[in-house]
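Render this sequence as a predicted structure.
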Amino acid sequence: MYKAAERRPAKTKEPRAPKTVVFALYDKVTLQDVAAPLEIFARANDFGAQYRVILASPTGASVATTSFVSLNVDMPLAEVPDRFDTLIVPGGVPPDFYFTPGEHDIPEEQTPDVVVAALEMVGELAPRARRVASVCTGAFVLAALGLLDGRRATTHWAHCQELARTYPEIEVVPDALFVEDGPFITGAGITAGIDLGLALVESDYGPDVARRVARWMVVFLQRPGGQAQFSVWTEAERPVTSGLRDILDAVIADPGADHSIAAMADRAAVSERHLVRMFRVQVGMTPARFVERARLEAAKVLLATGDHGQEAVARRAGFGSADTMRRIFRRALGVSPNMYRKRFRTTGIHHNF
């Protein structure tokens, strides 16, 4: 009698091992630097990722934050696994630092590279991680340990010059939302922890998972404009005269309006020659250069967030024509507007999945 061949059971795909992410926490850590990537990892798990997150402090005690609340931790440094996937170093300030109204400005905020507990903890954990990421001024801890020597890195825009000056062995990239160099990934300021978290998720589990997380979080998968979008004049001195500041604000608010030197000088009630001199002294660039940068940032946002054609984007941003916009994009960014728009399908991180 014919005997049917026995069917072999189908091979089942073995589940991936969870990826352990350790946050190195210390007193006066910036809450958002922790909360933003935490939320990204949690939502990624909802969409199929497998992250195990550990909040660790030197002694296992809860840590104070810069935002009114304290954070409980999961374990002390001594109990962190010998090997794990990702170490995240958030920014913060020394425990005894407090802002004094009228005395401190943002760039005068102290950085955590003087926090002994943070240096000792990260120094012990970094060699045990496959990759190391920092958020905001957490880059200063990595820098103080020599981990970023000879590498590219970024931090909060207000501290980029200080990072470059204090640690000249590092190539600081001031406009990036995050910079990947080998096993080290440094993120920009505070909410850029969202961008960093999405990049890590994409690297681990692919762009589809990262895109679903970004959509659920109501954020860009890759935010347009870099850090410069938050202030087109971040590299310049803050204007001294309120009249010039009004001119700058008007350019940012409506880049498509008439911002010729004659029009701006008329609004400021000064001569064209005096306006140019004011820009050079107080802003560090010519009026035409400032207007072009503002229009470029506006066009980048329009391209990344909408489906308008290039002619419409060029008119709204103030370039007049798509040809002019394309020429400025290629000169300033090295890519066409169309290529720039396509790049927002990914965070730009290297894929490991």
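Summary. Residues 302 and 313 are 6 Å apart (CA to CA). The longest helix spans residues 287-305.
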